[in-house]
Design brief:
globular, 9% helix, mainly beta, 141 residues, 10 strands, 6-stranded antiparallel barrel, two-stranded antiparallel ribbon
Amino acid sequence: MTTPVGGRLPLDAARRVIEARVLTDQVKLFMPGTFDPDTWETTPDIVLWEGPGLLLPDRSPDLTVTVQDGQGTPVGKTGKYRLLTPVDAPIATSEYRVTLTASADADAVGRLWTVGDVERSSAAVVRTTWLSYDTTLNNGS
């Protein structure tokens, strides 16, 4: 059995520290608007949640192959990422997308990721959501 520290469980203390010092980006989970072919209008995005988070790549960057003319050609167009959010953030599902609205990495702000899976744990200090990055959603880059 876990002994409370200062009246709180150790996981609660760890969550507070992580939320304050690690989850330094601002994240938005949303369902993209849909196109209505009858009216030629797109419905607005439906925001599920906005708040603190952190986005981490889960693999090395895509390989670039250099051919004889010296031009670099990227091999991959997608990548896997982990999104860390507070445990009380809602669970996103595959129809949702993720974007960073504020980050120390200015180039990451505004990019789009699609939701894959959400990890569950009986001792979670953050919620981990697996994301996919697709350059076709991000103007080819």
